[in-house]
Design brief:
Layout lengths: L1 H32 L5 H55 L8 H38 L2 H20 L1
Helix pairs in contact: 1-2, 2-3, 2-4, 3-4
């Protein structure tokens, strides 16, 4: 939601702002061309406006990148927690008993086959968390990198236990 609102703000600011800056630049150019008595001041103000506009566009771009990075990190944490919960849930689903007779053994075999299928799908999620963690660790340092490693390690250890 925040990203969408900022995208809208960025788009509106860029388009409407550019129109206004272009309009002011046109007026300044007209004043300078007409030989206004304060040509130097008009030119300075025009340059100042253009620099401020360029700075604003750069700040908007920087903020967009920061929001994208924050979203990606937040998504990683969410995915890691979700994957960890699914792995732990699968650990609890695995029965300890073995079939005592043929019918029970066959039922356990069917359950085991379904369980293996679920595990294969979960394996892709675990790999994705590991890949995302490796990529994000390169982008972050210090406490955030350690937190990323901690989340990845929790998922990997739970997966290894499974």
């Amino acid at each position: 939601m925040l990203r969408d609102k900022f995208r809208e703000f960025s788009r509106d600011t860029s388009s409407i702002g550019q129109e206004r800056v272009d309009g002011v630049n046109g007026l300044a150019d007209a004043l300078i061309a007409a030989g206004h008595s304060e040509n130097a001041t008009v030119a300075e103000w025009k340059d100042g406006l253009n620099e401020a506009w360029a700075d604003l566009l750069e700040l908007i771009d920087t903020r967009s990148q920061m929001l994208a990075a924050s979203y990606e990190l937040h998504r990683f944490y969410h995915d890691a927690r979700e994957t960890l919960a699914q792995v732990q849930h699968k650990q609890k689903q695995l029965p300890d008993e073995v079939g005592r007779d043929l019918n029970t053994a066959e039922a356990m075999q069917r359950m085991h086959t379904a369980y293996e299928h679920d595990i294969q799908a979960l394996s892709a999620q675990v790999r994705q968390v590991q890949d995302d963690a490796a990529r994000l660790e390169k982008a972050y340092a210090g406490e955030k990198a350690a937190d990323i490693r901690r989340h990845e390690r929790a998922v990997s250890e739970a997966w290894a236990e499974l």
